[in-house]
Amino acid sequence: MGFICKPWNRLSLFTRIMIGFVLGIVLGLVLGPRAEVLKPLGTILTNLLTMVVAPLVFTLLVCAAADVGDGKRLGRIGIKTVIIFLVSTALAIVLGLVVSNMMNIGAGVELSNMAAPQPKGQAPASMLDTVINIIPVNIFASLAKQNLLQIIFFALIMGFALLKLGDKGKPLLDCCRAGQEVMKEITNMALEFTPYGVLGLMASVVGKNGTAILIPYIKTIGAMYLCAVVYLLVVQAVLMVGVFGRVSPLKFLKNMKEAMTFVFATCSSVATIPLNLACVKKVGVDEETANFVIPFGAVMNMNGTAIYEAVAVVFTAQIFGVELTFTQQVMIMLTATLASIGTAGIPGSGLVMLTIVLSSVNLPMEAIGLLAGIDRILNMARCVPNIVGDAATAVIVAQSEGTLKR
Question: ∠ CA 313-206-114 to the nearest 5 degrees?
């Protein structure tokens, strides 16, 4: 047993994840629906990483806010981060709209052959309600429910308060630092299970859906993956990291491969926070900036989800024969930007936010039922730009602050 385990343990995490990924696909094709028995492996992995997310994000951001050095720098980093998030998300939506329209992704779909259940109506929240809901009534309830927006708000306020208290706040800050290290160690232990969890997830998905699921929606899937790849390589790697971050795009992508593989398999931006942090620090981002931007971005920055919202709206409009005016497409851009910012980085959340985007231009909600069947496949594509966008933003912010390590 020792002879077998040693070579396996010597392999990099990326290599082990890829082996699990490929084996999962093979097992899914061979076993078919019976591969569902392997799904618990994926559930265990997701639960292990989700378990540490709330305390990890909380302690990271408290320490990151306190370690910034002064309130002005914290505010400066925060403003830079939010601006980059908004601009990059808007670019993602534009790309999704342009590619989807050029490919006519909804053409040729026979609605009579598809199930289109009517989802329950959901009234979109106003901007004021969204802002008010960020402020937690009970931080312990927010931690228990993993309401990351509320956790981030409270953590930043607490970190800033500890910064102002100085020596008086040092005992509590030291406690948060110890908690941060404990959460990192638990995360490292959980990551060792990643190859097996990925194997279970992929076997289950492929076994349940097979390859036939790709046929009815091949254009939509193709548009989503094309947009994701183009956006990742051109906008994030070359423009954001290469031009503005002044880091080699190849170096960046090489160091991000483990996080990208993991999120592609698990479809959870939030669960990828620990791995994304480790990868972005390898690129040269200082710990304070990384610890602030990455957890913040996991909730606020959803470039891939923004692409998905644009693709899904064009798909919906075309299969139902609705002509979208220029004004409506601008409305989609604005609404999808806000919707993607409020999307929690968990599997399937894009479908929930799609309700708000569709309602903004009065498109049929039946499209949510149509897209639900291939949501997992689309989700795998949209999650990669989500986490890479956080890392690229961290590089730009660190470069602008003069803290990027070469």
Answer: 40
CB–CB of 272/262 below 8 Å? yes
- Kindly report the number of other CB atoms within 10 A of residue 2's CB atom: 5
3-state secondary structure at position 221: helix
pTM given for the model: 0.68
Instruction: State how far Cα 52 lies from the chain centre.
Output: 16
SS3 21: helix
pLDDT at residue 309, as a whole number: 83
pLDDT at 400 exceeding the cut of 60: yes
| Paired tokens of 258 | 């483990």
In angstroms, the Cα distances linking 223 to 7, 61, 229, 240 are: 40, 36, 10, 22
Say how far apart CA 183 and CA 59 lie, in whole Å. 9
Contact 386, 345 (CB under 8 A): yes
pLDDT band at 211 (very low <50, low <70, confident <90, very high): low
Mean pLDDT of the chain: 79
Note whether 27 and 41 are within 8 A (CB).
no
d(CA 346, CA 348) in angstroms, rounded, equals 6
**Contact between residue 383 and residue 267 where contact means Cβ atoms under 8 Å apart:** yes
* pLDDT for the residue 251: 94
What's the angle, vertex CA 72, arms to CA 67 and CA 78, rounded to 5? 75
